[in-house]
Specification:
alpha+beta, 5 helices, six-stranded antiparallel β-sheet, 39% helix, single chain
């Protein structure tokens, strides 16, 4: 299913070395996703048996506003697409899910300012994710990657540098090979 997504298979293949390195550095869930309508579509996930449970699975979809990868993808989506999303209903998974369009607009601006997001317990109350954008040769955000950790283990801020570094590495690879996704 994920391979059928736009740019799915080639993007997944290009991303695997970066995802594997990020997994080896963290031994936590590492995910790659694209925006597909109002949802994130997971193209790949590498997991540890001991990692926190997550709802996302390869080929699975989750409303974009409730996930780290989704917040990154929405933040860099075209303004008209953002406005459509903000006008729609926002599903709630926990009491921490951003379900207000004003709060979501503010969160998206923070992602654009910082270049990453720490999504705190939006889908489950025991998981936090750190996500960053992946850009193609045209400097468009085409995907996002993340690490999902159990609340408090390790500190999410410590994951920002390796997540951002992996996303930038994949972006450089896509820039160097514009014929691939």
């Amino acid at each position: 299913m994920a391979a059928l997504a736009p740019r799915g298979l080639g993007l997944r293949e290009a991303a695997m070395p970066f995802l594997e390195d990020l997994y080896e550095a963290t031994h936590q869930h590492v995910q790659l996703a694209v925006l597909d309508g109002p949802d994130v579509l997971y193209l790949e996930r590498i997991s540890s048996r001991d990692a926190v449970g997550v709802h996302g699975r390869v080929g699975g979809r989750v409303p974009a506003h409730a996930t780290g990868v989704g917040l990154v993808l929405l933040a860099y989506a075209p303004p008209a697409e953002q406005e459509r999303y903000l006008a729609g209903p926002l599903a709630t998974f926990t009491d921490r899910t951003i379900a207000d369009s004003g709060r979501l607009r503010w969160a998206l601006a923070e992602v654009r300012r910082d270049g990453y997001v720490i999504s705190d317990r939006q889908v489950t109350l025991d998981a936090v994710s750190v996500a960053a954008p992946v850009r193609d040769a045209a400097d468009e955000v085409v995907a996002a990657l993340s690490v999902v950790v159990r609340l408090g283990d390790p500190r999410p801020g410590a994951l920002v540098p390796p997540v951002v570094s992996a996303a930038r590495g994949l972006s450089r690879r896509l820039l160097a090979h514009p014929d691939r996704p």
